[in-house]
Design brief:
The protein is an alpha+beta fold and 172 residues long. The protein is built from five helices and eight strands.
Length: 172
């Protein structure tokens, strides 16, 4: 397969996007571009030979469904993932999702503890155990709200990319 590139949509892309993909839910691609300019979403488009072959949106305002948003208010949501049928089973959807996840990691700027773990203040939660280097169960020093801490049964797990990296590299 030729080189696939994935990037946020730009105004010059609208003609090709409108020609290739039908807009959904009474919205236009221009509406999505506008929301992207307001930092509400990132509209990621996969390109092959200068033509769009797939796309997805990342909503930065939390999940669209209220009951989910109640439990995960700061969690970005990836939605409207679509790949042209003739390009299915070539890893394009997976590549789009990975790029959306990378965008989410780049935008990780909220920390209730002001990134004290990076300042050498050792104010991070203790990792009690780790599952397959992907799920980190923690015992928190404080019982305050943290947007990266989620409840699982009687325990908590951590989704903070900074904390995961510190544990992966230094086992702290």
């Amino acid at each position: 397969m030729a080189e696939l590139t994935i990037r946020p949509i730009e105004k010059l892309d609208l003609y090709k996007m409108d020609y290739t993909f039908k807009s959904e839910f009474g919205r236009t691609h221009a509406d999505d571009l506008h929301d992207q300019s307001l930092s509400n979403i990132s509209f990621m488009v996969a390109w092959l030979h200068d033509n769009p072959v797939g796309h997805a949106l990342v909503r930065w305002l939390g999940p669209r469904i209220e009951i989910v948003r109640k439990d995960y208010p700061d969690c970005p949501e990836i939605y409207r993932l679509e790949v042209l049928k003739e390009f299915w089973s070539q890893g394009i959807a997976t590549a789009i999702i990975k790029e959306c996840e990378n965008e989410a990691l780049k935008s990780t700027t909220k920390c209730a503890k002001d990134f004290s773990c990076l300042k050498g203040q050792n104010e991070f939660c203790k990792i009690e155990y780790c599952v397959s280097d992907t799920v980190y169960f923690v015992k928190c020093k404080e019982h305050t709200y943290c947007s990266y801490k989620d409840k699982f049964g009687g325990s908590f797990y951590c989704t903070c990319p900074t904390r995961k990296e510190i544990y992966s590299k230094y086992k702290l």
